[in-house]
Amino acid sequence: MKNVTDYQGQHVLVLGLAKSGYETAKLLLKLGATVVVNDGGSLETSEDAQALRTLGVRVIDQGHPLSLLDDTDLIVKNPGIPYQIEILQEASRRSIPIITEVELAYRIHEGRTIAITGTNGKTTVTSLIGDMFKQSDVKGHLSGNIGYVASKVAQETAPEDYMLTELSSFQLMGIQTYRPHIAIITNIYSAHLDYHGTQDEYVRAKLNIFKNQTAEDFLIFNSDQKALLDDSDIKSQVIYFSTSQETNGSYIKADKVYFRDEFIIDVKDIVLPGKHNLENVLVSVAACKLAGLHNEAIIKTLTTFKGISHRLEFVTAHNGVRYYNDSKATNTLAASFALDAFNEPVHWICGGLDRGNGFEDLDRHVERVKRMYIVGKTTEKLKLFADQHGIMYTICQDVKDAVNQTADYTKAGEVVLLSPACASWDQYKTFEVRGDEFIRQVGVICQMND
Q1: Which residues share a beta bridge with 251?
Q2: Domain residue limits at 351
Q3: Residues 278-306: pLDDT tens digits?
Q4: Which tops the pLDDT comparison, 263 or 80?
Q5: Does 303 appear as a known binding residue?
Q6: Of 417, 174, 404, 238, whose CA–CA distance to 314 is shortest?
Q7: The whole model's pTM is what?
Q8: 121 labeled binding residue
Q9: Do 263 and 131 belong to one domain?
């Protein structure tokens, strides 16, 4: 990593522990800072908190006392903490800089960065790019929202390596100098309005990904959404992708994938299922071609990569019924892709955290839904949606109960699909936990019915 001296003697407040806060605190200590970690919850049983205390970090939990700001030079904020809380509002009034952990990671990283964001597809794209790098002679290090803390990964990279970083809108709100060589926005639709307040604020956060880029850098963008860039001050080279028309980047023509008029692969040879994944393929091809990877590495991935956990993940087939885990579908657009992927009758497990949106975006995607199994805080909204479309439904306590209920209504030739169209946080810590419960319970009912 870079020899950074900017933090020596600085007093830094790490707001929010979790994995990123823990790694951030350790890095800042290494860089010579005096570190305080503050978390609103209880850290009494946290092994990470105890480990930090052993290293000399002051750890304050169960609240955010404003006195913590009195000698603070910088705040590194957990992305999920809203800027509206009192301590951050007061920090802004005092002109204390507030960044997120990916900004710190960027400042110490010696190599180049490919940064991936978007409403949907960013994890699949990050995984695809990561696999293409793995097949090549260039090292690419996965980081960010995909599960690897960026500030830890950045310490392990060499100058010739790439950081492959999945970014949320929350993280992008807290950058200052962050400048990826290749920035990717897969798409932008309505999401996270409970955090951002308005769609305009959400879009602005996403577009932050290219704000520090120069003419030497690239922005890969969806050609169907060009209008979103109309009022933006873009200094980088914009490379478009499209499944419907030729572009200056990657596109599909006559069922073949091209990049800048160079043939890459026949669509029929791509093993990743789903029409929506063709866009993810095009994005990944463009990024890896711009990064200088050979076609052999790209093609090897496209002919072997079958998908990621919790994203239209085939679980099993039992007595003619197929079960799919799409727990990562935390919004209506992602759920629409899953619902459109099947020609068979679908038993749809849906619902979760109410983030203020409706479900009218799914009006055109439920013609094959035979029954809905509704869970979570959005139950009343989804009951109304089911009534409007004449779909039978069952109200369930949670995903486990929903899986059990499907056993009473399914028959051979049908599909059980967990694709919630909602975040998990009303009942589950993460969408992974929700998906794992689905997988476990499918296994239980399959054993019971043997």
Answers
A1: 242, 258
A2: 313-448
A3: 999 999 999 999 999 999 999 999 999 98
A4: 263
A5: no
A6: 417
A7: 0.78
A8: yes
A9: yes
Stronger pLDDT, 194 or 437, i.e. the higher one: 437
Structure tokens belonging to residue 56: 């000399």
Query: Is 356 annotated among the ligand-binding residues?
Result: no
Among 234, 267, 263, CA closest to 250 = 263
Write out the DSSP string of 326-390: -TT--SHHHHHHHHTT-SS-EEEEE-----S--SGGGGGG-TTEEEEEE-STTHHHHHHHHHHHT
Angle (CA) 440 428 144, round 5°: 100
Question: Is 54 annotated as ligand-binding?
Answer: no
29 within some domain? yes
Two structure tokens written together for 100:
């997120």
* CA 412 to mean position of chain CA atoms: 34
Which of 60, 80, 96 corresponds to the end of one domain?
96
Number of domains in the chain: 3
Structure tokens at 182: 């290749």
Q: Shortest CA distance to 249 belongs to which of 273, 223, 226? A: 223
User: What are the DSSP calls for 113-152, one per residue?
Assistant: EEEEE-SSSHHHHHHHHHHHHHTSSS-EEEEETTTB-HHH
* pLDDT over 70, % of the chain: 98
- Is residue 157 a known part of a binding site? no
To which residue do tokens 């109410």 refer?
354
